[in-house]
Write a structure and sequence with these properties.
Rossmann fold; binds NADPH dihydro-nicotinamide-adenine-dinucleotide phosphate; 2 domains; 9 helices; Quinone Oxidoreductase, Chain A, domain 1; six-stranded parallel sheet
Length: 328
């Protein structure tokens, strides 16, 4: 079958030539054969290409077979645990046909929209829930800032904060994304890429941000710290603007303000929270089923060949909603 590998490690911006399709031999008698339908494309994939010590997750090197969160159909089964035709999600290699032993696969519950498991009921929804609900715990006393809120994690995190009664300020780097956000009743919608962002944020949050859900990093993060109130909290989810850099800045220039303002910073990565997966499903599944969460997929067609370009575009901010690639 065909599989997608990282052909060479990028230095700076990721390019199409860093990817390559190769032929992969499947084992003779696999427990399961899966056919992927959608592969999730996520910013952390770029951090896996950074030098040793940059991230928590196993590095990809030249020649690594890529993998990602995938919605797949069982097409052959040698175990009573799975039947052909069933849909599953899990972290799987990027191949057109996948051999699996079934470990780590989750069945899509009957009656659910399978594609919801790529986003609000999948890893991005889980990230938003862990960061906002479990760690951030906003209340109606809070003024919350969520950056990159037209993206996958940010859009869910912002909605969770709003449901808690907090005032919510959201940001997005493109006009159509801000229009999409404006229809959702947030207190203010700003452009975190604008040269005057710091000023705009200070105006929008005149009495200060009390809870910052950080997705972007760089100058936007610096502006957020500037606008924070004494005793504020930061949930540090991601620093996406830094992932393509040769010398990524992990901390903002005004780091000292965190101490001056007695701000608590809570960085997190979801693999440490998987024990809460059932609680997350219990919270989020009814909400999604009732239409209580506004979510959309940003779907690219073209199969495996489109995954590299989809990731390159994601890191430039091309997506509105959760970026996935359809595999047909
Ligand atoms: P998104 O759907 O939000 O896509 C990425 C978005 O980041 C883009 O659409 C763009 O939005 C913004 N962006 C990209 N490049 C830049 C740049 N140079 N400067 C400013 N903004 C940029 O992706 P996700 O929802 O999957 O991820 C959002 C964040 O959450 C990321 O930082 C990611 O690493 C993090 N994350 C953390 C996890 C954890 O366990 N802690 C797990 C999953 C994700 P715009 O056009 O609005 O600028």
């Amino acid at each position: 079958t065909r599989g997608l590998i990282l052909h060479s490690l990028p230095e700076g911006k990721l390019q199409p030539e860093h990817f390559r399709i190769i032929n992969i031999a499947l084992p003779d008698r696999p427990t399961l054969l899966l056919k992927p339908r959608y592969v999730s494309v996520d910013p952390y994939m770029r951090t896996r290409m950074q030098p040793e010590g940059y991230d928590y997750i196993e590095r990809w090197i030249a020649g690594s077979l890529l993998s990602g969160w995938t919605l797949a159909e069982v097409i052959a089964s040698n175990t009573p645990a799975f039947k052909p035709g069933e849909l599953v999600v899990g972290h799987l290699p990027m191949q057109e046909i996948i051999a699996s032993d079934g470990k780590g696969l989750m069945r899509i519950p009957a009656g659910s929209d399978p594609t919801a498991f790529l986003h609000p009921l999948g890893m991005t929804g889980f990230t938003a829930w862990v960061g906002m609900q479990l760690i951030g715990q906003p209340t109606e006393e809070d003024t919350v800032l969520v950056s990159a809120a037209a993206g996958a994690v940010g859009s869910i995190a912002a909605q969770l904060a709003k449901r808690s009664g907090a005032r919510v300020i959201v940001t997005a780097g493109r006009a159509d994304k801000r229009d999409w956000l404006r229809h959702q009743g947030f207190q203010a919608v700003l452009d975190h890429r604008h040269a005057d962002y710091t000023k705009q944020l200070n105006n929008a949050a005149s009495s200060g941000i009390t809870l910052n859900f950080e997705n972007v990093g760089g100058p936007a993060f610096k502006a957020a710290i500037e606008a924070m109130r004494v005793n504020g909290r930061i949930v540090l989810c991601g620093l996406v603007s830094q992932y393509q850099s040769d010398r990524p800045r992990q901390s903002p220039e005004n780091f000292a303000q965190l101490r001056q303002k007695n701000i608590s910073v809570h960085p997190f990565v979801v693999p440490h929270y998987l024990r809460y997966w059932a609680d997350f499903q219990e919270f989020m599944a009814p909400l999604v089923a009732q239409g209580g969460i506004n979510w959309s997929l940003d779907t690219l067609s073209g199969g495996l060949d489109s995954i590299g370009p989809a990731l390159i575009g994601l890191l430039h901010g091309d997506n509105l909603g959760k970026r996935v690639v359809e595999i047909t």
